[in-house]
Amino acid sequence: MNHFLDIHKTDAGALQGMLSKAREMKDARNGRPKGTPDDDQPLKGRMVALIFEKPSTRTRVSFDVGVRQMGGETMVLSGNDMQLGHGETIADTARVLSRYVDLIMIRTFDESVLTEMAEYSDVPVINGLTDRTHPCQIMADVMTYEEHRGPIAGKKVVWCGDGNNVCASFLHAAGQFGFDLTFAGPPQFDPEDEFVGYARRKGSKVAIERDAAKAVAGADLVVTDTWVSMHDSQSSKERRHNMLRPYQVNEALMSHAKPDALFMHCLPAHREEEATSAVMDGPHSVIFDEAENRLHAQKAIMRWCLGV
Ligand code: CP
Ligand code: NVA
């Protein structure tokens, strides 16, 4: 049984294997209607629990559709409606759910909820985002980069803005897939040392840069995310915006990147804040391919978890 908790906790060969499976399954669908099942039905007879303690559009829909395409069934559970949100321990919840379902995907706040769920669950657990990481997103992002430009190894990725949970998983991926990452943002928003240290130990060049234009120079991929994440307090919004505004991804900033650079954003975006519509809808942008690839990458992740 394999949990998919974080990119750095998963074998690099297994990650590559998941991405090739994802590409193979994407190709096999070959423009078929989205509601039709795959020829292959590896999840037939399996039940997947999708638990959300925070809102979601992409994660929720892509997991749900992915399971159904592979012949399985889902139940979508809101943390608040479960006893989990009313004091039942994570360990007991994990033990009980393991008696009913074959796989658990959870989006939660504190990373410890995810790790405790995995510790006490008899079935695989997938990280659908925590306050600290978002590994499924970055699997889709690496898949998207490679689909458009070939291997990401050795490329320069620039992260602009808040060194948040998505940035952390990008640093894990830098280490595992062998690319370099420059962070451009104010010091208060630097990614945690733990994530930077991990990527560096794995041989990635990680630079911290305060000047956005300098950071983006020669970039193969420019990435940003919301300035106020779901775990951030709304009262910090104005302060965060004021500090992060110099790192907005706009056409002027993108002009410093390589001419064939890609632009990514995990979405949901706040247009004209962290990125302008001119960039989001412009020639560098692959944001909707990224969103689509959540589906394909996660199907491969689920197959790897279940060994099917
Ligand atoms: N990118 C992402 O995880 O989106 P949702 O919050 O809509 O799931
Ligand atoms: N950093 C964002 C990502 C949303 C998919 C958040 O945690 O809210």
From TrEMBL:
Superkingdom assignment: Bacteria
Single annotated GO MF: amino acid binding
UniProt-annotated binding residues for carbamoyl phosphate: S56, T57, R58, T59, Q83, R107, H134, P135, C136, Q137, C266, L267, R294
Primary localisation category: cytoplasm
Subcellular location: Cytoplasm
Pfam families found in the cross-reference section: OTCace, OTCace_N
Name this polypeptide is given: Ornithine carbamoyltransferase
The organism of origin for this protein: Marimonas arenosa
